[in-house]
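User: Could you check the structure of this?
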Amino acid sequence: MCYAVGGVPYQITTVAIGVSLQIFLLDVVQMEAFYVSVILFVSRAWDAVTDPLVGYLVSRSNWTPIGKLTPWLVLSTPFGVLSYLLLWFVPQGSTSPALSVLWFLTTACLFETLMSCYNVPYLSLNMFLGGDQRDRDSATAYRMSVEMVAMLLASVIQGHVVAVYNTEKQEACLQQDQAHETPQSSSPPLTALLQETQKAFLTSALVIGALFFLCSLVLFLGVKEQQAPLCSDDKVQPSYLTSLKLLICHVPYQRLVLGFVFSALAFQMSLGNFALFCSHAAGLGAQFQHLLLVLLASASIAVPLWQVVLLRIGKKATVFIGLSLFIPAVIIVACVPSNLPLFMTMCILMGFSVATIFLLPWSMLPDVVDDFAVRHPSCKDLEPLFVSCYAFCSKLAGGLSVGISTMTLQFVGYRAGACNHGDGVAMALIVLFSPVPITLLLIGMIFFRSYPINERQCLQLQEQLTTVHPEAASSSSDPREIAEQPAVLQQPLAD
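Assistant: Sure, the predicted structure tokens are below.
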């Protein structure tokens, strides 16, 4: 359980940034959409690039008195908390837009770097927990459950912040409208009227920062890293560039990564604009918190259900069924955006689909690693690089989604801090919420269709892995952070 708690910092900060940072920069900081897109895209791209590098550095780290991975966690935690707080701090007295952009860009890149230094070692810590396969699988299951609770908690905190923002902005816009009707009166700028919103963002940052530190402390005090026999001495550890080349040239990994990237881009494109869509296209900004909670709660419920389904019909079939649920849901919401009961019902359907992309690609990754181990038995310690490169693709998709979204809003005339936006902005949000994600999702499903490993081949890979790579047989699932629940992992795979 202490190991599972260590996954909370990454999830709560990721949800908070994904839900609120775009609104914070656009309407609280009053930054132009173009500069917001630059900050969001560059920081995500930087984060994506640092993940594989950190993964390689972690695999080359030496053992210390407190372990091999624990020093990374200990050193990155305090600086990660500090950089997260600075990300939501608006420098006072700085009137230069260039300085403001430089501040938030530097802070965002620093925070993402520190989170890579925390999250990559944390994901790799599973192989150093000791115990047998069942114990480590149980740790993975606990981690998934706790991370889902963390996502719900973060959505509640940020949903409250967005609710404060919507309420205060409506009051500010009403005050400005009254001032315009009276020629001799004047109203302060919108930034000055959003003081409570600024306090709410900073307060939420303090709460999340405190949770970050406490969860890291529980991880450090409650988990003792143990030295594990990862591989034999006759194996070689290739260089960083050679390792990347081996991964890129592995066909099953190519197909899985491309399917994951396009699918993740589709979901992040739609959900990244969820708050703006609710506020400006659906007119349900005040209900955003409830809609987000319904979506995440249904996703939490769906994860174990999808696990049972994939054991019965296979992973590829489950991927197709789960991803397909997203398409009718966003079409209906885009066509009838202001119907709250219908919107909530579709959020349940969207949540079930989100659970698919949360679970299935990470469940398929260990099969790819097994296939790689059979084909390259002399290579060692590449499991963290597989995980970090997978995370790289997810974060790159996130960077592309926010960059494309904010650039589109800039093109259609979105004005930071404006009380009302034209029909062009509402139409752009509808397109970003539904047609574009559907197209990307269909492309991702095509790549998943060409994914070459099925359930029968998985069983054959396990047998070959035991023969060719016997020392990994007892720990093959551990270093890859399989997102599968132990209650069903102990059952045989269905054909």
